[in-house]
Amino acid sequence: MPLNLSGDQPFENTPSLEAKALRINLNSNIYGTFAEIGAGQEVARHFFRCGGASGTIAKTMSAYDKDFSDAIYGKEDDSRYVTLSRLKKMLEWEMSLLEKRIDRNKNKEKLFFTYANTVSTIDFAKKFKGHGWMGVKFQTKPDQPYSIITTHIRFKENDAKQQQLSLGYMGVNLIYGAFYQNDKPKKILKYLFDHIDNDAIEIDTINFQGPLFKDIDNRVLSLELVKLGMTDAVMFGPDGNNLLPAAELYRKNIIALRGRFRPVTIVNEDMYKQSLSIFQNESENDDDETLVIFEMTLSNLKQTGEIDEKDFMDRARLLCSLGHTVMISNFMEYYRLAEYFSLYTSKKIRLTMGVTNLIEIFNEKYYKDLSGGILEAFGKLFFKNLKIYLYPKIDSDSGNVIDSNNLNVQPRMKELYKFFKYNFKILDILDYDKKGLEVYSEDVLEKIKFEQSGWESMLPDVVSKLIKTKNLFGFKSSN
Q1: Which of 29, 75, 89, 309 has a 20 to 30 A CA-CA distance from 105?
Q2: Rounded to two decimals, what is the model's pTM?
Q3: How many degrees, rounded to 5, is the angle at CA 51 between CA 62 and CA 116?
Q4: Where does 247-474 sit in CATH, by number?
Q5: Is the peptide bond before 238 cis (omega within 30 degrees of 0)?
Q6: H-type helices in 8-75, by residue range?
Q7: Which CATH superfamily is domain 11-216 in?
Q8: Domain boundaries, the chain
Q9: In sequence order, which residues have a C-beta less than 8 Å from that of residue 33 and are 6 or more positions away?
Q10: What share of the chain is helix, strand, coil (3-state, %, to 5)?
């Protein structure tokens, strides 16, 4: 029976897990293996139970013992098992065995696939809820190179058995999506949660690779994860590939700059350079690795109530062209961002911001939902090793430079502000570029829109050149 990519079920009429597994089993061309480490054969069992598995499953296995796992897939340099590196080795090794043991000449219509996961469920103390990697390597034409979908999940449930069930559901959804919804990657994200409670699992990283997804930018799918509420934050590197936040942030010093970056200006770059310089010169600084993050919230990305994906990609390309690591988050309040970082590191955290943002932090209206109000928020914000690097601004009326010494917060907040100011939690950036204080991204966009000159000098050279060559932000080439 040839592979049929049509007939996808509407989202509101979600097919059952049994129906999904059976549809794959009854397609005589789909044939592959399952390799699951750590949480049992939770995905494979759905295909066994629905019937017709003999035509689909070549092999299932679980190298549960670490020595056996190492003997099959090799040892990891960091001696860890729940990693992307381990998942990739599993997919590659199992696919190589499938190709070696199944004669293509006798099975010319077969569409090979390998599903793998490496998972750690909740511990007995219920302190660590567990996480895992899962992926599928597959083809939709016999002579086609393989495409791959890999994703990282974090469990939120407090019961190991329920976590295993949720893992099984998501694995079936992933395999089904790979074969029958691969032309709609965004919908695959939604369908991964079929028959799973939204608060059972978090997906914080996903990557689509291969010929079926050659026109897909994984940064857009990262954005979609946050938009759909599947995670609170995603990250991607200068090369545009999605990153696992937990791995990137783990035991790192962190410097974070929040902004719209529409586009990134010489001010943003100066904030970055000066922050890094201050941090490196702090007397108590150590040799731990430091990660600088350019962070945008969903609200930073909204211009007219909805997120413009092209506009998002324009900003993402410019930031990546400057070699920056980017985070997209759903953390409207700074204390939530600080809380998130503290989940993964106990090292130093520095938040770089302008005067206007700092004044807003001291506005009580943002903390009405907290029982402890602004005091609770600040207890989380300035937890342990966090400091704020403050970039000054020009007062539009007087022309004076405003910094931590002369900014105005609400009268009720003055004493609280002084407490943090004089306990060295707020540090001024002193060696700033004075020419940049009058540079605003809104002015740059206006100049581009109305084809006015002079905007190029307000941006890093790489950025202005890319805007021209790629016709970004409405730029119209004269050629």
Answers
A1: 89
A2: 0.91
A3: 25
A4: 3.40.50.620
A5: no
A6: 17-25, 44-49, 66-73
A7: CinA-like (3.90.950.20)
A8: 11-216, 247-474
A9: 57, 58, 59, 60, 61, 94, 95, 97, 98, 113, 114, 115
A10: 40, 20, 40
